[in-house]
């Protein structure tokens, strides 16, 4: 809880978690549909609790010697260095494609797909279908399209959006996901499992907003398959955290938040 400041205490204030608030449950569901479902859960729970691109190539990870025979990361392996390689296939539906056929390429694909999957474009039917068409494994693409249409249609009223994914007049909708880091859990030339630690913001920015912009932290596990000379999204699951302690920065006004949302464009390249 927020602790009062007295004359004997330093003026720096840290906002600690509320000891009286029940801990938030951790949910993990498998399948490509899981990410949208958990976003809906996280958004609703957040409101209930609170309100009633890289530009240059970097060195790939030295992962081949660190992996065990079955491709999984060896126990006790030190933290991976910064990894990722710039995709070379241009973009499809605004999503970078054409990743290197190695561990670093899989990490880049996972980070970028999570960034795209958690974006404003997913609430619009046409752009959502184009994104799924660009990044999904063809084996699951049709069922994913159908299921996501159902999920996002159900989500829109809770997000304060109309049936087309549009915010109320005078407000701006923000839905962005920013990768903090990636970790390869298992790798083979045909399939890779990558964890992406990320922070997201979602909500309506503007003076009359009843869905203020909030943040959440989670770790998204992405399963990728090498299909048609590229890494394609095959499965997704998600768990909450790791979540840092909130800092002592004051919350911005609705007007300031709207200006930021309108003036700062989102990033298509996460890693």
Automatic annotation (TrEMBL):
Chain segments annotated as transmembrane: 31-48
Region span, Disordered: 1-27, 58-87, 237-258
Keywords linked to the UniProt accession: Membrane, Transmembrane, Transmembrane helix
Compositionally biased tracts (Basic and acidic residues): 1-23
Keyword Cytoplasm among UniProt keywords: no
Bias-annotated ranges (Low complexity): 61-87
Protein name: Putative integral membrane protein
């Amino acid at each position: 809880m927020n602790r009062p400041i007295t004359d004997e205490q330093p003026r720096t204030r840290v906002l600690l978690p509320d000891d009286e608030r029940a801990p938030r449950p951790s949910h993990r569901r498998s399948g490509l549909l899981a990410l949208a479902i958990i976003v809906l859960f996280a958004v609703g729970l957040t409101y209930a609790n609170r309100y009633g691109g890289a530009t240059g190539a970097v060195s790939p990870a030295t992962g081949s010697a660190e992996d065990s025979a079955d491709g999984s990361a060896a126990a006790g392996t030190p933290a991976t260095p910064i990894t990722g390689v710039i995709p070379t296939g241009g973009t499809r539906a605004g999503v970078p494609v054409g990743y290197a056929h190695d561990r670093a390429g899989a990490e880049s694909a996972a980070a970028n797909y999570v960034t795209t999957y958690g974006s404003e474009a997913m609430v619009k039917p046409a752009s959502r279908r184009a994104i799924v068409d660009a990044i999904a494994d063809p084996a699951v693409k049709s069922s994913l399209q159908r299921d996501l249409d159902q999920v996002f249609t159900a989500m829109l009223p809770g997000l304060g959006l109309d049936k087309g994914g549009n915010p109320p007049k005078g407000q701006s909708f923000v839905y962005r996901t920013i990768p903090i880091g990636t970790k390869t859990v298992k790798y083979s030339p045909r399939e890779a499992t990558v964890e992406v630690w990320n922070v997201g913001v979602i909500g309506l920015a503007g003076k009359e907003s009843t869905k203020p912009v909030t943040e959440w932290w989670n770790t998204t596990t992405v399963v990728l398959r090498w299909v048609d000379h590229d890494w394609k999204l095959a499965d997704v699951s998600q768990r909450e955290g790791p979540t840092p302690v909130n800092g002592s920065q004051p919350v911005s006004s609705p007007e300031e938040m709207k200006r930021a949302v309108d003036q700062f464009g989102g990033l298509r390249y996460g890693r």
